[in-house]
Design a protein that fits this description.
5-stranded parallel sheet
């Protein structure tokens, strides 16, 4: 498998990433092949994952994705990232796990390096279009994140959130 990894990366980023997103039953095989090859690059995959056109996940080696979950059209995600089961992701979602250090003021932020903090997304989550999730965030089960939201803090299970920064609108339970 390790020997095939470079081949899978070339196949995905060289061709499969750009093939059309379609619900046409005759062209559904494109989605199946794209998801299969992308799944081979992830650290762990569940059954029936979906990787849409334009999804960018880097090398994928720090990404886990659960059953019936997907990466949305033109999303950009990085690991370490754990996505639970039955997660829907809208187009152009950004999930970031790297940020710059900025604690010191005597040297430029650019020279302070960076830190990596993983993101965890629970089960049965709906992430709307153009949502940004920042490093270190945990999203609970059953959460709905409204389109265009910027998630800067952990979200409790069954919350409906929206805005920039994202705030709780209500709870589903």
């Amino acid at each position: 498998m390790k020997l095939l990894r470079p081949l899978f990366l070339v196949m995905y980023y060289g061709m499969l990433k750009f093939l059309p997103a379609t619900n046409n039953r005759y062209l559904n095989f494109i989605k199946v092949i794209r998801s299969y090859i992308a799944g081979k690059l992830f650290a762990k995959t569940g059954k029936n994952i979906n990787v849409e056109k334009g999804a960018d996940f880097g090398f994928g080696n720090n990404i886990e994705i659960g059953n019936n979950s997907g990466l949305g059209v033109n999303c950009k995600v990085r690991g370490p990232l754990k996505i639970g089961d039955n997660v829907m992701m809208g187009p152009e979602v950004r999930i970031m796990t790297n940020s710059h250090n900025f604690d010191r003021t005597d040297i430029p932020m650019l020279a302070q390096g960076h830190r990596v903090r993983g993101v965890e997304i629970g089960n049965d989550v709906w992430i709307g279009a153009r949502v940004i999730i920042l490093p270190g965030v945990t999203v609970g089960d059953g959460v709905i994140i409204g389109a265009g939201s910027v998630v800067t803090k952990n979200i409790d299970s069954y919350a409906v959130v929206g805005g920039a920064p994202a705030k709780i609108i209500k709870f589903r339970k």
